[in-house]
Amino acid sequence: MFVVQSGAVKFKQFSRSFSRFSRFTISCSRSTAVGTTSPLCGKQSLRTLAAWSPSTVGAFGGSPMVNNNHNIVQMRWNSTDEQSSRQRIRKRPMLMDFPQLVWPSVIKTIRNWIMVHFIIRPYFDREFSLPEFIQGTKQALQVVSSSLAGGEVKQLEGLVDRAALADLKQSLAKMSVAERYDIQVEKEDVYFSFPYQVGVMFDESDDDSQKRFVEITMVFHVLRGLKGMIERGETVPLNVGVLPEFRDKISICNYRFIKEFTKGVDSDWTVNVVNHFKPSDYVEE
Questions:
Q1: Is the pLDDT of residue 62 over 60?
Q2: Which region holds residue 256: left if phi is over 0, alpha if psi is between -120 and 50, else beta?
Q3: What backbone torsions phi and psi does residue 191 show, to the nearest 5 degrees?
Q4: Three-state DSSP class for residue 21
Q5: Could you give the dihedral angle defined by the CA atoms of residues 242, 245, 249 and 251, in that order, rounded to the nearest 10 degrees?
């Protein structure tokens, strides 16, 4: 499914057209989205379907809250003196302006299963396998993060959306060398990953053909040095996320992948959202 060529990941799949697919078309003035909360390639607004998301409960020592149907990491300040007792948050430049997704949503997980088995596989790609896709995204995570850490943004052309590349260039310019180094991720260091949201989108702005897209948002939990621990035969605790000695080594990555399935179009999976953050940055000292 995924092929790495010249430092970039190519996501190869064959697009298939099915005449019966039209039954799933939802008409609107320009474009429609099913099961997604994202803009269409950053240009057109799509209708969204709201979903309930569970809050994060102290997995990293913080006190997160739910906001705008996303399990976004936020902090409640417990202080009697707002001026003197408030703890500081160590702010790092964000790669892109995107909600910080941490945990799965029960409703979205059920919806994702339905989208894959009843829409994508029957009407888009009969060979599509979500487990294989997830493995491919881990490889993409490693390639993209390594290029960003080295400041080699040009190598990501064709793999990362142009608009996203422009945002990434601006963000990298604001980062220190150490902050850029923290971006790099080895795929073997991912200890937990899941598709947060699977979306199918229709763009009816073109009178000749209806453009069809599949968009999948992935969340990766990364423990720096996990690969080495496994190679040395060390036991990795199941509650690694709450142990203080591992707190600064854990990071979370949000990547969003998109592929066009329009009739007659042979396209690859590309990345249009890249975001890395450390939960420890949002923990009260």
A1: no
A2: beta
A3: -105, -10
A4: helix
A5: 10
Task: For 191-259, give the DSSP string.
Answer: EEEEEEEEEEEEE---SS--EEEEEEEEEEEEETTHHHHHHTTPPPPTTGGG-GGGGGGEEEEEEEEEE
Say if CB 137 and CB 274 are below 8 A apart: no
The rounded Cα 218 to chain-centroid distance in angstroms is: 4
User: Please, which residues have CB within 8 angstroms of residue 194's CB and are 6 or more apart in sequence?
Assistant: 104, 109, 134, 218, 219
First and final CA of the chain: distance in angstroms? 44
Burial class (CB in 10 A: 0-12, 13-18, 19+), 173: exposed
CA atoms within 13 A on the CB side of 252: 25
What's the pLDDT band for 203 if we cut at 50, 70, 90? confident
Beta strands in 70-225 (DSSP E): 190-203, 211-223
